[in-house]
Amino acid sequence: MNKSQMIEALAKEEKLPLKKAEEVVNTVFGEIEAALIRGERVEIRGFGSFKVKKYDGYQGRNPKTGEIINVSSKKLPFFKVGKELKERVDLR
Question: If you average pLDDT over residues 11-34, what whole number do you get?
Fold first, then answer.
């Protein structure tokens, strides 16, 4: 399922106009994004949690040339699936 399919499903399920359903979906994802940018953790009970993980820099190699390159440190979003969702998915 992609974002537009999610919007259509929400509109159909809740009998909303497509524009309103799009606003709802964009607001939810926007708030998750904003919280992660602020360094906060987002937990959705029964679904999972989002957080930002920090990775240290390291020396790597270019696989084509073998040249040593420095990879800088970075922060990336990380999702951890919740126990309930994991169990529901495993049943199918």
Answer: 97
